[in-house]
UniProtKB/TrEMBL annotation:
It comes from the Bacteria. Keywords: Exonuclease, Hydrolase, Ligase, Nuclease. Its EC number is 3.1.-.-. This is Ligase-associated DNA damage response exonuclease. It is an enzyme of class 3 (hydrolase). The keyword Cell membrane does not apply. One of its GO terms (molecular function) is RNA endonuclease activity. InterPro entries: MBL, RibonucZ/Hydroxyglut_hydro, Xnuc_lig_assoc. It comes from Ramlibacter lithotrophicus.
Amino acid sequence: MAQDLVVQRPEGLYCPAGDFFIDPWRPVLRAVITHAHSDHARVGNGHYLASAAGEHVLRARLGDIHLQTLAYGERIVHHGVTLSLHPAGHVLGSAQVRLEHGGAVWVASGDYKVAPDPTCAPFEPVRCDVFITESTFGLPIYRWCPDADLFAGINDWWARNVLAGRASVLACYSFGKAQRILSGIDASIGPVIVHGAVEPLNAAYRAAGVGLPDTQHVTEVKDKADLRRALVICPPSAVASPWIRRFGDAGTAFASGWMQVRGTRRRGGWDRGFVLSDHADWPGLLEAIAATGAQRVIVTHGSGPVLARFLGELGLRAELFETEYGGDAVEADTQEPPA
């Protein structure tokens, strides 16, 4: 029986034939990184391999690392394992990892979404024998609305707050979610202010050629009246900090896939909740899995048991990997917002 191309180890997902890890959660010698969210990309590894499209963001988050990059679709061979990276559609630079060895093809998805997003390359289905998939929103209740409807709602909420003379504070994850929101809003409604945690990622996106509207730090606003017309993009943690006080009586909203669940917005104390996620919803997960043609599917973080059971009922060989993904300690979309 052929050895599995990817197995579980205490350090993370390991490719024995190639002697490297994919998104390890403990320091290792060689790490292939699917994207720069901090539950997948951590400091301390000896050598990093990631997509060229994600270089700016990865360096912005991890600093001075020994980084090798690959263009999407470019192939390299390491210890006899052919490796290539393919767009995952999750955030800028996100990649699926394709491994080929001994006549078998495995793909590790990392995090992904199939919905269109102008700030990153779209998800690319990769045919394989075994597909390792995330399942962050792996329940049938999670179904995203079209972006046009979502951003119409955000713009309307912002415009109504402008008429009421108060700022619109929109909390979201600083990397990926913030830039996707910036790309979809109507910036003619008012000034756009971003938190200090967001702007370095904006700079990395702009350096990668992604167009974003002009943004300001709050300290750069000269006319204080602009604070009452502004859309303020910040991490959720900032809403509970003294930083938020300078905006006075502001409307608050949270943008997350968790807003799909009735009661989550109320428990968090938000005025509005916008259902926006950089992960695939239930139909997106099933669509992506089917497109791979894989007969064996290994499910990682999220609602893994539910998705695995459903895939088994479809006749696929479905299994689970226990991972430490979804544990971003800052403000990841993979964590429910605090009550």
